[in-house]
Write a structure and sequence with these properties.
Blueprint: H1 3-22, H2 29-36, H3 41-47, H4 50-63, H5 66-73, H6 79-96, H7 100-110, H8 114-140, H9 150-174, H10 181-197
Helix pairs in contact: 1-2, 1-4, 1-7, 3-4, 4-8, 6-8, 6-10, 8-9, 9-10
Length: 203
């Protein structure tokens, strides 16, 4: 990575690793700059300080969902396909970033930072609303069971997908996994979930 964009990207990647390992409060600007191989003044130049850098990391992570949310917001997207698109988006997100990304997400879930709450929670609420509308449309179209609570259905679905990635470091020590395991797990998780929420039709 060269040039201005390259330096900025190096800082984001280095900071993500350090924040994941040690937490936001214990990481210094000098540590981040040294890990990125750039002058520490670049953090102020690009991000207006450490908090701005962390905010940039959170915003980048959220941007991974923007195109997905835009696509499923459209009324013509079939609800079941929309849920499968969500799984693909999550899978690509975890594949895009280094393993430390899991630690960073886990830290924020257990003890959300002020920056994370300010930047991310509102976006999560909006995205949850879009996905919830997907469930409601599925009910209205006679695809999903109307006797199940939509919010709980969605929380169960999101958890079954996200928890796999968060717990994968320990899962790999319990059950043998080859290169096809993750994709097979996701497909089976979606299949089991769909069978539970879809309206049964006589064959």
């Amino acid at each position: 990575m060269n040039g201005e964009a390259g330096k900025r990207e190096k800082l984001i990647r280095a900071a993500m690793e350090l924040f994941a390992e040690d937490g936001y409060d214990k990481v210094s600007i000098r540590q981040i700059a040294a890990a990125a191989g750039v002058n520490s003044s670049m953090i102020s130049y690009y991000f207006n300080g450490k908090s701005g850098l962390y905010e940039a990391i959170v915003k980048e992570l959220l941007q991974n969902f923007d195109s997905f949310i835009g696509s499923v917001r459209a009324e013509e997207v079939e609800p079941r396909e929309g849920l499968r698109l969500y799984v693909q988006t999550i899978s690509r997100l975890y594949a895009k970033y280094p393993p430390s990304f899991v630690k960073l997400v886990y830290r924020e879930l257990l003890n959300p930072s002020e920056i994370f709450e300010q930047v991310a929670v509102g976006r999560f609420r909006q995205n949850f609303g879009v996905l919830l509308n997907l469930i409601e449309r599925g009910k209205a179209q006679g695809l999903f069971r109307t006797d199940l609570d939509s919010g709980k259905m969605l929380m169960m679905f999101i958890s079954s997908i996200s928890l796999y990635f968060l717990a994968r470091p320990i899962y790999t020590k319990i059950i043998e996994q080859d290169d096809t395991f993750t994709q097979a797990y996701l497909e089976q998780a979606v299949e089991v979930f769909m069978r539970g929420i879809e309206v049964a039709h006589d064959e």
